[in-house]
């Protein structure tokens, strides 16, 4: 299952950005970005995610789509 961090990493790499480049744009430390991407920080603060979304030109929907889908299916009643 994808996490927000793994989605951030996938999109960052697809955009051809290093963690250092993302740091330069967002002013989030390289270590902070790494910790989010590898899941040490599984639920980063919204302002942190918002800065990353802006830098990567993406949306919260894209970062959380699969995570939300899994949660919906996990809690769906069985018929």
Largest β sheet strand count, sense and barrel closure: none
Q: What's the helical proportion of residues?
A: 55-70%
Proportion of residues in extended strands: under 5%
Q: Spell out the helices and strands N to C.
A: HHHHH
Mean pLDDT: 85
Description of the structure:
The chain has 79 residues and is mainly alpha-helical. It has helices at residues 4-14, 19-26, 30-38, 46-56, 60-75. It is globular.
Please provide a brief summary of the model:
By secondary structure, the chain is mainly α. It has helices at residues 4-14, 19-26, 30-38, 46-56, 60-75.
Question: Key features?
Answer:
79 residues, 5 helices, mainly alpha
Secondary structure layout:
Elements lengths: L3 H11 L4 H8 L3 H9 L7 H11 L3 H16 L4
């Amino acid at each position: 299952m994808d996490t927000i961090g793994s989605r951030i990493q996938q999109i960052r790499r697809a955009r051809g950005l290093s963690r250092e480049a993302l740091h330069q744009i967002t002013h989030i430390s390289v270590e902070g970005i790494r910790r989010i991407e590898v899941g040490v920080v599984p639920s980063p603060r919204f302002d942190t995610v918002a800065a990353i979304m802006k830098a990567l030109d993406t949306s919260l929907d894209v970062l959380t789509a699969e995570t939300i889908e899994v949660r919906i299916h996990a809690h769906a009643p069985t018929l």
